[in-house]
Structures are given as C-alpha cells and as structure tokens.
Design goal:
Layout lengths: L28 E4 L3 H8 L4 E8 L2 E7 L5 E5 L5 H13 L4 E10 L9 E10 L13 E2 L2 H13 L4 E9 L13 H10 L4 E3 L2 H11 L2 E11 L15 H24 L2
Parallel strand pairs: 1-4, 1-5, 5-10, 6-8, 8-9
Antiparallel strand pairs: 2-3, 3-4, 5-9, 6-7, 6-10
Helix pairs in contact: 2-5, 3-6
C-alpha cells in the first residue's frame, strides 16, 4: 500500500534510531498489544524471538512465526496518542501490516467471557481520528488482513465473532465499574449490533490507511458489560489463567494470519 499521509519520517537520532520506539527497522507484520509485559509473553510464542527495544510504553521483540514468516510485537500503550506514535514510527521503520491483539468489553448481552472477536470496522468514538479525517470517513479494517485472520481461526478450529467494534477515549465511561446510566448510554450500540468496545481501533484503522499500513484487530472479550448487572468486573477476570490462554490463542491466530499474508506477496 502506498503511504498517503506522512511525507517525512518521524525524528531519528544520529544513529538512525527512531526516538519514541527505539527502532531502526521493523518486521513486515507487527502485533500490537497494549501492555509491554504482554509483548514479552507474545514473543515467547515466536519460533525465534529476541528483544529489540524498549522505550516508554513501546516494548518490541522480533522473530519468526512457527511457519517462518518474519514478525514483531510492539506494545502500543493504551489509547490513541500512543497508538498514533507507534504507527508513525512503525511505518517509517518499514512495517507493512499491524494487528492489534488485545482485550475488549462486550456490548452485546450474549457475548461470553473469552470470546475472540475480529473487527470488520469500528465506530469512531475517540477524538484522534477526527484530527486526521472528516467525520464521514469510515474506520474499516483491511479486508485482506481480516480474511487472513478468519482463515487462520478456521485452521485452528477456533470459533470467532466478526463485526463492529466501538472505540472511545473515556475509559471508565463505557465499562462495568464506571458511572450510572451505562445501559442508557450504550443502548444505541446494542441496537445497532456493535459487538465490543475498546480504545484503539478507530484510530488504528484510519491512521493505518493514511500511512499505507494494513491494519486489523483481534481481541478477547472480557464478557458482556450487561450479562451480570450487579457485578463491577468482567467475567473473564474470575479466571486469569483462562484469560491468558485465550489471549495466547488470539496471538496464534494473528501469527498464522501473518504467514498467510506473507504468502500473498
């Protein structure tokens, strides 16, 4: 994909290192968790993995998938400002595709804890993407990458949901433990079939498009925010080991998708 937005690289240090991420070059496909510790855990699943750089919230490991495709994982931090900086520097370092691998809150009442959800697109409820594109611009996941994720899930015999995410900036305003009136605020998203809510994919899809990066998201639902109205936490937190296994499964799907994407070149 042709870079459509930035014409100059982000600043580099005299030795060519990008200032925020500490990268010089990137693997063609990069997994994007939020937490630096999750970067390390995901890299442990690589056939060959080694530490690359860690600056601030950006922890990068580089290696190969089990099938031999080059891959990296870079933690993006939470929210759009960090994701934007990660995307800018990854694009400058030569990345071609990014896959967010994370967690999300279920909007639909039937979304069970641990369900893996692949985004077809995203309702833009955050503010960063509006600095880049007009309100009517769609936040759409890259179709080739979505197809690869769906195919990988099928290969691994893993059922997934595919549909719309909603991204937003005010974390606690759209979570189980937040403020009164949650159901009233979220009812329109229930009615329109939005599956989950998170904080990054609206910016990821729009800015990825502008930067010439294929972008997709695969997240593990922590449960529905409406399945148990008396609980202040999501159901997935009741069994941390199960949640960790589900995130590992989502990571393996993303790695296999990277291999399929490599095979299309």
């Amino acid at each position: 994909m042709k870079k459509a937005y930035l014409t100059l690289d982000p600043p580099r240090e005299p030795d060519g290192t990008l200032c925020r991420t500490g990268l010089r070059r990137s693997a063609p496909v990069v997994l994007l968790p939020g937490d630096p510790q999750r970067s390390r855990k995901m890299a442990a699943l690589f056939a060959e993995g080694s530490f690359t750089a860690h600056r601030g919230t950006f922890a990068t490991y580089t290696g190969k998938t089990p099938g031999g495709a080059d891959i990296a994982v870079t933690s993006s931090g939470m929210g759009c400002a960090c994701v934007a900086a990660a995307l800018e520097e990854l694009a400058a370092a030569g990345a071609e595709a990014v896959i967010r691998v994370g967690t999300c809150g279920g909007v639909q009442p039937d979304l069970a804890p641990g369900t893996i959800v692949i985004a077809s697109g995203c309702v833009r409820g955050e503010g960063a993407s509006y600095e880049l594109v007009p309100p009517e611009f769609p936040a759409v996941a890259d179709p080739l990458l979505v197809r690869a994720l769906c195919s990988a899930a099928q290969e691994l015999d893993e059922p997934v949901r595919i549909g719309l995410y909603r991204s937003h900036d005010a974390f606690y305003m759209e979570s189980k433990a937040a403020h009164p009136g949650l159901r009233e605020r979220m009812q329109k998203w229930i009615d329109t079939g939005v599956l989950v809510v998170e904080n990054e994919s609206g910016l990821l899809f729009t800015y990825g498009h502008l930067l010439g990066l294929r972008a997709a998201s695969i997240c593990v639902a922590l449960g529905s925010m409406f399945a148990d109205p008396n609980a202040n936490v999501y159901g997935a937190y009741a069994d941390p080991e199960h949640l960790a296994r589900r995130i590992e499964t989502a990571t393996r799907i993303a790695m296999r998708a990277a291999e399929q994407l490599e095979g299309t070149k």
